[in-house]
Records
---
Amino acid sequence: MPLSGQGCVNTKAIDSMLTRRIIPCLDVKAGRVVKGVKFLNHRDAGDPVALAAAYNAAGADELVFYDITASSDERAIMVDVVERTAAEVFIPLTVGGGLRSVEDMYRMLRAGADKVSLNTAAVYNPNLIAEGARRFGSQCIVLSVDAKRVNAPDEPPRWEVFTHTGANPRPTGLDAIEWIKRGIDLGAGEICINSMDADGARTGYDLALLQAITTISPVPVIASGGVGSPHDMYRGIVEGGADAVLAASIFHFGDYSVADVKQYLAEHGVPVRRT
């Protein structure tokens, strides 16, 4: 049964209103928000609690909080930072990084998360998706996938799932599209797809990857990796078919505000929640 009283988000209800969500992403390392290029050369972007409060006030639709070294360091996520972040926001909060069990998920939901994001642990134990969905409801389970192009130049596009992204990413041998299909069958209520090739590069989302996923996914898809401008987000929604668009660098370092993105999207015919 779903966990009661935790404010799990009904993403299908959001979709039925036809609005598209704008989601700032807080990649947290050693208690600070950081952002790099292709998971390397991180720049400090500030305090997660202060940034979360600012994005909440700025009209963000949701927030994503990733403890980006929890899996590679083989440690638990920083519950205290999650609790302090959740206390500052009144919009849905997704938390991921180092979640290896249903008990870990429960701890994050108790700390104030609305949804939990599974990545590395789900690859090693796919049944974790099903267990989480049974206990908390599919709407609380986000399958996050880091995918990299692995096809030769003369071959059709193909993407492989990687874990422990950073200096030493680990290939899994899993085809990203097939893995996502399986994750949905197991109970994932939402997909967050991050292009490792585009991450932090500000060259736009991998639209071919997005299209390959959104055409087969019956659940909402969040586009991640590569945003450099509001136009990139527009293309992710209109051309890629994304239900939501996630970004970090352009928000953290002041290139654009959430309001800038929403105004651009609204002016170009994309329905968004205005504040």
---
Amino acid sequence: MKKIIWSLAVLPAIVTAVALKYMPDTVPLHYNFAGEIDRWGSKYEHFLMPVFLIVWVILMQVITYFQEKKIEDEPTPREQASRRNNIKVVRIVTIVFEIFWLILICWILWTSKENANIETAQVSTSIGQFIWIAMGILLVVIGNILPKSRMNSVVGVRTTWSMYNEETWSKSNRFGGIVLMVTGVAMVIASLILKESTLFLANIGLMVLSSIVILVYTYKVFANLKK
């Protein structure tokens, strides 16, 4: 799995390097809410996203490295298995995010190349719509992964209440996974039917609402257990 992670970490940089050979030096780099180009710049700015991914992957690998070091320190085989399971979950989440980031980079590069030769800055683009659809799908995938994690300080629904014990953790992450999947589906639907001018606010609202719902639920589970 480590080889897959590192391969996916480096691949976007390679794809970007190849794509830049077919672009002019100045390309569109940002779009407003109306889907119009509002900033042009050097094509080499596209390397920022691959670099961000590599830094993020290194951080995730450092986290899993120290988690692996702690496996033998666990007092029981059950707790050792729990830590191994969480390491696996972190790696799966890393791979899912890498795939999402690669698709996003490819779409941005393609859109940038397609619009680079257009004289006017009034160019309609569906890049915002695509990003939100991709994020919605990402939430659905993560929602499926959350219930598989055991209590840890790295991934999952982590609040003071959810981390009270194994029961609050299990219930909170199972519910959180369902909420994320529903939110992801709702974001995809919103991205298909709303205009870009309102899409941002609608999907941010969905994400904030889902966070509040999950937070309230974790407190409710904790409060009921304490009665």
